[in-house]
Design goal:
The protein has one domain: Rossmann fold, CATH 3.40.50.450. The protein contains five helices and eight strands. The chain has an eight-stranded mixed sheet, with helices on both faces. Helix 1 runs parallel beside helix 2 and helix 4 runs parallel beside helix 5. Helix 5 links the parallel strand 7 and strand 8. It has 174 residues and is of the alpha/beta class. The N and C termini lie far apart (39 Å). 36% of the residues are buried.
């Protein structure tokens, strides 16, 4: 069942979100979450590194959060879903009417997956604005950011700068 969570979870209040909708166990928000970000275009040399990093995270049980929308992020999610890591997924759309992928369902049923969205039901498709707003939410909730690749001048680079302004630790695969 989809429930609403108020802004009590925000640490730095850098986003303009006051309510988010959740499906799954909100207790996962109490864990130190590693935020995963990557630009859509990612150099081949980093794709293998990202896959290896996902395997390490999955084996370690490190809790992660992300939009898991770019191709590299999606591949990392596939690996993470097979491991021990608790996962928070933030789609750039509303949760109402969203089909939960079969691969997510076992972790959701086990209380190891939380789906969060700052968007109301009428937001049905990701758009540039909703993706950026979602990424800011992921950054705000995350304890630390892991940057797989930030395209120069791109949106992920903006997220890196926002993390630095907020004093949030940033790790890079590059």
């Amino acid at each position: 069942m989809i429930s609403a969570i108020t802004s009590r979870i925000w640490k730095n209040k850098t986003s303009e979100v006051s309510k988010i909708w959740a499906l799954g166990d909100p207790a996962l928000l109490d864990l130190p979450l590693l935020g995963i970000f990557s630009s859509v275009k990612c150099p081949a040399r980093l794709i293998l590194k990202a896959h290896d990093t996902a395997r390490e995270l999955a084996a370690s049980g490190q809790a992660v959060i992300g939009g898991f929308q770019s191709p590299v992020e999606k591949e990392m999610l596939t690996v993470l879903l097979r491991g021990q890591s608790p996962i928070v997924i933030c789609p750039a759309r509303g949760l109402e009417g969203m089909r939960i992928p079969l691969a997510w369902r076992p972790k959701l049923a086990a209380g190891e997956l939380l789906i969060l969205s700052p968007f109301p039901a009428y937001v049905k498709r990701p758009q540039a604005e909703s993706i950026h707003k979602r990424n800011l939410l992921v950054l705000e909730i995350a304890s630390e950011a892991l940057i797989i690749h930030a395209e120069p001048g791109g949106k992920v680079e903006q997220i890196v700068r926002a993390a630095q302004r907020a004093g949030k630790p940033v790790r890079r695969l590059e």
